[in-house]
Amino acid sequence: MNVGFLVFGLAGLLTLVCFMPPLAGRLKLPYSVLLAIVGCLLGIIVHVHGWAPSWIGDFLDSLEHFEISSETFLMVFLPVLLFETALSMNVRRLMDDIGPILMMAIVAVVVCTVVVGVTLDAISPYGMVVCLLLGAIVATTDPVAVVGIFREVGAPKRLTTLVEGESLFNDAASIALYSVLLAVLSGHGELTVSGIFNDFIVHFIGGGLAGFAMGRLACLLFAWLRGFPTAEITLTLTLAYLSFFISEHYLNVSGVVATVIAGLVVGSAGRTRMSPTTFEHLASSWEQFGFWANSLIFLFAAMLIPKLMAAADWQELVLVAVLFVTTLVARAIVVFGLLPLLGMTPLSTKVSNPYKVVMLWGGLRGAVSLALALAVTEQTGVPEEARQFIAVATTGFVLITLFVNGISLRPLIRMLGLNQLSSVERTIRNQALAVALEDLQGKTDEVARTEHIGTEVRDRIRAVFDASLTSVHDGQVSQMSDDQRVAVGLAIVAQREEEMFFDILKAQIVDWRMAEALLARAERLEDAIRLGGIPGFERAIVADVRYSTGFRIALRLHYLFGFQGWLARELGQRFANLMSKRSVAQRLIVFAREQITPLLGEEATQRIVILHQRRLDLIENAMQALNLQYPSYAQWLQESYLGRVAREMERIRYRDMLEQFLISGEVYADLMAQLKSRWAHIDKHPPLDIEMSAAELIKRVPLFEGLSADSLRAISKLLKPRLSLPDQRVLTKGRHGEEMCFVASGAVAVHLPDDTMIELGSGEFFGELGLLGEQQIMPDVTSLGYSKLLMLSSRDFHALLARDENLRERIQLVAKQRLRAIEVWKQFSQANAAPAPAPAPASAPSPAQAAEAAEAAGVSTPSGAGAESAEAARGTPGAGTPQEGVPPGEILGEPGAVPR
Length: 900
Description:
Residues 703-810 form the Cyclic nucleotide-binding domain. It is built from 36 helices and 8 strands. Helix 8 (128-137) packs antiparallel against helix 10 (157-185), helix 22 (482-506) crosses helix 25 and helix 25 packs across helix 27.
């Protein structure tokens, strides 16, 4: 066909499509149904258009000569439809309902295939394989056909997520089954359960891995294209086609799953990797691509309907009706029979009965089913009668779902009340309406006075506001409980937090890696509020300041192998994250006071502020330990943060001057170049030096003072530098006798058996008694900050003492003093625990006597190490003191006498 007429035909179709959405709205028809009607009419008219003027005749001729094959549907239109739907989905919401989604996407396809195959095989002469193939074809659901209806009637977001998620993945399942069964029908395979299962698993999981890899690769490439929005959006378009084609033709896995996963990856991670301008335009661009693809694929598929149905007889039409009923039964088995069983698994999520009814009735079929049926008609290896049956049955079935289910779905949703707001949402709506109308009424009056608008006009406009305000019931907020109001307010603030983090990314105050982590944490906080209310928020803010999984892995590798680079990077990332969170948390408190108070009232706002203040305190406490340990790095972070803010304000100022025509484009470009050069230094990220060299840390331990250089070198080879985090357990009961530790910097807390706590500071050591075989007291030891320790194993400890007599004498002296102190404490504890008359017996020393006994034991530390820490320990808040008797901390807390 002439290229000019091809373009003419496509342009004419797109022009026709432009008027479909408003026409569908006026006719109260689903958009997909109207497309099917128009497509059928075009399919009939193209064969009888001798009456038409020449230009209309040429247009219809071009449509008649379009060669629409199944490969065109699957390769040209399907990747765009899948990618567009996946790109717009919230991955976290998808994962919340991954159980029912996979149930409907995989199990439902298998059930539908089997039920349809067995039923039609019993009443038709076409054979089991043909009937199973038909079942696999009609198992695909069309998201566009049903989600458009959901959006029109205002169906809940979760219901939309369930149906969209099902349709994204069940295409892959049905196409995998379709491929295996078509090969069997063509004589190129055998029908076995294991063969079908293995082929499906390979196709499904392999496609997912391929799509994930290509999606992540695209996200990395976005960094090379930053600043070129058209190139970035083009890359997403090519990704949709490449992920589909490469997976299908080179990797022999599911291209459908690959395209879906690639779209989900770009939708979740891409917004932090792309330039902010690109991501804002990405959704609208793909909405346009999806509109074109969906409209054209429906029109082309519907144009084939008259041709496919032309040879249908009444027996085949009866089988179509049986097929429709059978698929409903199969879907009901899954929705009402198998979904409740999901509650017995970790994937359980409750799906209400109204949702189940809509999911049952909303399984509309569309272009994908027609494309698969068309592909069967193109297979010469399939018997003619089988091709005819599959084409007629699929076409008739698609028409029934569109015209019966599609037209009745909207009334069904309204009848079940799924398009209505909940009582809480209605209350919030009315309160928001009242706040907005009161504010707008005042601003409208001000505009009227400024513009000298007449009193009569102002009164009429004011009457509109007054009538609307009167319709809002006073005191609606009071219909919610206090906890409900606080939970609603926390959810609003959480959504605002996510936007703030995205604004920080757009302002280039943080890089994409940090933005990705911050946005993920904000989404988790919002989920915690949605699922757990106030208690969920309280748990989430505690979890928010915990160390990430990557950090814990890096710390574990550091303890096992001494690796420091990854740990240093994770520490620096945590430092920067906490600083960004602190900045946002401070602004969120201001936001709550200014915006939430008019909406939810003073009392609820105050509770929200208190909860967020507690969160801010947790962040401050987590930062304080880092600030004290790494003051230089903290100073650089503050400089970098302030410099990035200043750079963004300068950039905005120049852009405003350009938009107001105060400067020319050339001047603007020069100013931006100077800006980039001026602030280049703030993007240079210095590494966090955690100073973990054994040779350097040994110098901080007084016990090693005076040793020869050879001895120090030998010791440095045995000691393993380790970093301990705040509240991390350093030496637990199960590890006594395996190693001892020297505190090079920082402090640790020794938790004694009577619940008292003693603090050890720089230069002190603990664990030596266990290595000497004296395990009379085995306390837990935790780090009080970011402490730098030197660890010595049992084997190296004994080798070290055998090698250096001077060091052995020093350690043994401290050990003897500590053992003597332990004996004094034991005697005192036993005497104090026995029943005693008023005058204390001689065997039960008084606290003063016990203290004197400890002093008489000659308890001291070489070089006076630890005196300062022990003094701090006795004044440490939180050190427990039993009501009766004297705790061991007071006896053993003399300088150097604490059992470490």
